[in-house]
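Annotated sample (chain length 111).
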Amino acid sequence: MARGSDIPERDWKLFRQLQPIALERFCENVLSAIHDISHSNQSAHERYLRVFKTVRNQDKELATLFNNPRRSNAWLQLSLIHSHELLTLEEMQRFSPETQQRVSDLAKLRI
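Output written by the structure step:
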C-alpha cells in the first residue's frame, strides 16, 4: 500500500523493472547524438567541444531522470522519463490508472 504521495507497490515494482530499459534508451539517444556530431563537417576541435557540451548536459539530465530512485519521487521521475519518450505507450499502459493520471498531471504542470 502506498504511503501518502508514494507510488503504489505494484507500480513501484514496474517502475524499477522499466527504469533500466528507459536508461538504455536514453544512453542510446545520447550516443546517437554524439555520433552525428562526430561525423559532421566541423573541425575536430569544434566537434570535440560540441560532444563535451552534449555529454555534460545529458549527464545532468540523466541524473535527474535516473539517480536516487525512491518511492517518494517515482511519480516525478516516471513523468520525466515519459516526457522524454523513453517508454513506449504499451509500457506506460502497464501502470495503474492512478499512476498514469498522476504522470499526466505532472506533465501538464511542466508545460
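Annotation: The radius of gyration is 17 Å.
Annotation: The first helix runs from residue 9 to 38.
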